[in-house]
Amino acid sequence: MVTPEVMISRRPAEAEDRAVPGHWEGDLIIGLDKSAIGTLVERSTRYTMLLHLPRMEGYGTEPRVKNGPALAGHGAAAVRDAITSTITTLPARLRRSLTWDRGKEMAQHATLRLDTGVEVYFADPHSPWQRGTNENTNGLLRQYFPKGTDLARWSLNELTAIAAVLNSRPRKTLNWKTPTEALNQLLLSTQQDGVATTG
């Protein structure tokens, strides 16, 4: 359920101006026969992580059960688990918030927040520009996953490799650094901030 406290209007201003790292945008790319890949993009570095959402056993062979599991692989539980296993590989300082559209795949956003510590916010209906970083990145990803592609055929390792290629592209918005370089700088500064100094 999308309540007022999780609307984008409640998202901290630091997320909007990209001044503080750790604010993410997410979405699904939908392919042939309801196949999907999830995308997570960090707003300040443009670093992209892809979510592997394979079809569940029984997809296409068993009749759909009302309120049953989403066998296409991108139901709320599958998306929650994929985000949790992906984003928790980062230090807590780099996972402050996640902004998503109002898709039913985020129905378990409250559990996701409890599992990861990431505050979840939702864009206004029909407002893709409120997640512009993610929309732009999804456009870049369509070079690898054209519309009409069966996205379920890609393995986790293949998705990781494609994200690595995308993250190694220099970006004008990053003064021609790559998203990987920008994220590595943040990770290094996070490690240094945690080290006590003596004077």
Distance between the termini: 51 Å
The biggest sheet amounts to: 5 strands, mixed
Residues in helices, as a percent range: 25-40%
The CATH superfamily is identified as Ribonuclease H-like superfamily/Ribonuclease H
**Average residue pLDDT:** 87
Family: Belongs to the transposase IS30 family.
Domain Integrase catalytic: 17-187
Organism: Actinokineospora auranticolor
InterPro entries: Integrase_cat-core (IPR001584), RNaseH-like_sf (IPR012337), RNaseH_sf (IPR036397), Transposase-Integrase (IPR051917), Transposase_IS30-like (IPR053392), Transposase_IS30_CS (IPR001598)
Brief digest:
The chain is an alpha/beta fold and 199 residues long. 31% of the residues lie in helices and 15% in strands. It is globular, with a radius of gyration of 17 Å.
Describe this entry's structure for a reader.
The N and C termini lie far apart (51 Å). The longest helix has 15 residues, at 179-193. The radius of gyration is 17 Å and the shape is globular. The chain is an alpha/beta fold and 199 residues long. Strands 3-2-1-4-5 form a 5-stranded mixed sheet. It has one domain: Ribonuclease H-like superfamily/Ribonuclease H (Nucleotidyltransferase, domain 5), CATH 3.30.420. Residues 195-199 have low confidence and may be disordered. Helix 2 (76-87) packs parallel to helix 3. It contains 6 helices and 5 strands, in the order H-E-E-E-H-E-H-E-H-H-H. A hairpin with a 5-residue loop joins strand 1 and strand 2 (36-42).
